[in-house]
Structure prediction request, 859 residues.
Amino acid sequence: MWTFTAWCNSHLRKAGTAIENIDEDFRNGLKLMLLLEVISGETLPKPDRGKMRFHKIANVNKALDFIERKGVKLVSIGAEEIVDGNLKMTLGMIWTIILRFAIQDISVEEMTAKEGLLLWCQRKTAPYKNVNVQNFHLSFKDGLAFCALIHRHRPDLIDYHKLSKDNPLENLNTAFDVAEKYLDIPRMLDPDDLTNTAMPDERAVMTYVSSYYHCFSGAQKAETAANRICKVLKVNQENERLMEEYERLASDLLEWIRRTMPWLNSRQTDNSLAGVQKKLEEYRTYRRKHKPPRVEQKAKLETNFNTLQTKLRLSNRPAYMPTEGKMVSDIANAWKGLEGSEKSFEEWLLSEMMRLERLEHLAQKFKHKADIHEDWTRGKEEMLQSQDFRQCKLNELKALKKKHEAFESDLAAHQDRVEQIAAIAQELNTLEYHDSVSVNARCQRICDQWDRLGGLTQRRRAALDEAERILEKIDILHLEFAKRAAPFNNWLDGTREDLVDMFIVHTMEEIQGLIDAHNQFKATLGEADKEYNSIVSLVREVESTVQKYQVPGGLENPYTTLTANDLTKKWTDVRQLVPQRDQTLQNELRKQQNNEMVRRQFAEKANQVGPWIERQMDAVTAIGMGIQGSLEDQLHRLKEYEQAVYAYKPHIEELEKIHQAVQEGMIFENRYTQYTMETLRVGWEQLLTSINRNINEVENQILTRDSKGITQEQLNEFRSSFNHFDKNRTGRLAPDEFKSCLVSLGYSIGKDRQGEIDFQRILAIVDPNSTGYVHFDAFLDFMTRETTDTDTAEQVIDSFRILAADKPYILPDELRRELPPDQAEYCIQRMPPFKGLNAVPGALDYMSFSTALYGESDL
Prediction:
């Protein structure tokens, strides 16, 4: 509030007045309107001079309307609040005025007023040590930022280097005193508040700093003006320098072109090759050493001119106009003339060199080409007249023909050399070479020999073609023979192997298939005979051609080692083996007919025995399920079946005799029956085993029933429940089926964790080997123990303890006295000696013996 009061007074004093209390002195609106006139420079409407409340409200509204016309939006600030002395609203209004008239006009690089003012502070204080302006609260707390702003614009007022960051109060007072005394900026901040407040008021600091900005804005304008003048002068100086450099470079380049042109336009020579070569070397030195720097000079000249014109255009200066004769176009024309003279001079030098060199070069070229041609033709006529191809084979002849074709290509290629030799000779005659006579004579010899070589080449080519035609005919016959003889020979070899091949058949169909295949083979012998005669005729034609043209080695076939004699011998063998194969197949047919009869005998008997065994097995299984009659009835019927099975054994023995014939005949399959001897033997053995096992089970059940006191009804109930859950009639139950069976018999098994533990204990009793199944015997034994009173090892031990008069051992005499003789001797022989304390001679351990009886020890 003190800062805003000071800021208002800094402007009201210009009108000769001031305020003391900001929330009271603006209530009538008069000083508020005066403040706005001072800071804006404009005249507000005439105020109402009455002292009534509505007069005050009217004046304040005039001030607020003026503020809104300046583009300031007043939010929640009304005239009534100001008139009523609302401090918060009054301060908000004053801050809005400060923002509009003291801060908003600050513009730095198109930023907002606050950002622009902060950037202005940062730029002005950047060179100063210990000053880092980042905000309008903490960055100004030590006072160095205020001192730096003053020192930057008025270094005569403050010695900044004597200030210390450790004395913030001194720094603030120094800055505020100097600003008030020399810059007419009143104190708006309290140094003690700044140093003692953790976060100074940002708006107060901005208000005070904006006074610095407006105070130094005049100095800023002067600095900007000076910089602009320096910039303009610097650009002008640089432009003048470029103009002077252009004039100098242009003059120097034009002078060099003027001096060089006469030398390039000169055509004088001593008419010697050495003289022309010297001038050519001088020109090359000019192009390599003297001209490149001038090319760079010209490029620099053009670059400087373009740069100069661009700078003049960008700085709004008139375009540069060089002095007369030094325009860019003048230089370009002079350079173009120089290049034209260079081209003409170089063309003249080269044509003169060519003219002087040509005669000597042509003479040397004629001699060189003539020497090469004569070396190439040496021995060629003798080679073309040779008859060496008459003794060649086809591949050698083709090689000779390829060689001759290569020679023809070489000959055609040399045609150009002969024409060149003739053209050179003609040119030497045209240029009147001094030794034209010898040149013409040598050229004539070369042309005559060339004509002879052409005729000999054509005749040798015709002879080679005729010899090739004959050898190719023989080769085609040889190749045709090889192509047809190889598969025919393979067919003969395969046929001979097939005709003598051993075969093994087991059925009539197999032997009949072999006979049919053999008959089909015999039907193809006619075509094979034609192929044989056709192949042999090829050999006969070769022999005739070789004899007619006397071709050396013509009878040798390079494509195969087979001969007509080889094929004839094998063909004869095949024709002899065919009837032998016929006899072998007929013998095997009779053998398979006999085997078929044996199959039918075995099948007829097996089809009787097999079903009989199955019926007996089903009947025994039904009895074993315990669903028919009492145990004694079941035992009686099983023994009857046992007698019937033994009585049926002769049928098995008869089948064994037939099976022996089957094995002797090597008969492995029998489509007339599904039974094999092995399956019948297994069935017979399983039937006997099943009868014996069921007899044993029934006897054990009778024993269990009689010893445990189980009634027939209980036994039938156990069997009925077991069979009910034995869906597949396997005589065993899975664990889930066993549990259901127990539940059906009234056995309580809980569904909780304890019930599962109890069931696993029961399962360990009935399936001690963990096979995963419970058989009826184990099931019956378990149910018997669950439903009857049984003896235990503890009960037997207690009985022996009574006989021994409570001693831990028993003597043989005591056993003989209390037990029947045979049972007493049984115990004496099996009881181990007693090894405990107070043992007497002959003492026996009845405890170990008792536990062993129930399988509870290792005795």
The CA atoms of residues 239 and 643 lie 143 Å apart.
